[in-house]
Amino acid sequence: MRAKTSASAGFTIIELLVVIIMIGVISAIAAPGWLSFVTRQRLNAARGEVLQIMTKAQTDAEQQSLTRTIGLVTTPGAPALTVSAPSSTSLEQKIGDGKSALKVEAFVNNVQATSIAFNHKGQVVPNSDPTVAVVPFVIKVSAVDGGVPPRCVVVTTLLGSMVTAEGDDCDASFDP
């Protein structure tokens, strides 16, 4: 005699649809949080790059007894910092991974700035006009689409000390 075989092996179409809908709902809930997390991590990495470039320029200025000027390149989609010394070519260093749209700005006391210089002692070079402040010098990195608080590197004193900050602490009138 033959044994009866069951024709009900496997999942029904309704069970599969329920699982697919559940996965879709969970993904819709998690996706915005994940995207914000990725953007925050990219901003943190870009801020780290800015801090590293500035610290290296300051150290090079001390070691080689030269003034190093750090300039800001605000090309949309490809922000960068340039580091130059007197009578030498500038070295342009891109900020970010190129995958995310970043915006880089620099301010000194609510006034947009384009560069900062460190002298042979690693100190910030003052302006020829003593009424114009050179610190705090804020380089702010933010996402073009917003949604995530900006990150920044701030040169707080004429001696060249630097701190990192985020959110409201990155406003153009940083007060240490």
Automatic annotation (TrEMBL):
Going by the UniProt record, its keywords in alphabetical order are:
Membrane, Transmembrane, Transmembrane helix
Name under which the protein is recorded: Prepilin-type N-terminal cleavage/methylation domain-containing protein
Q: Could you name the domain of life of the organism this protein comes from?
A: Bacteria
> Organism classification, top ranks?
Bacteria, Bacillati, Cyanobacteriota, Cyanophyceae, Nodosilineales
Q: Which residues cross the membrane?
A: 12-35
Instruction: List the InterPro entries.
Output: N_methyl_site (IPR012902), Pilin-like (IPR045584)
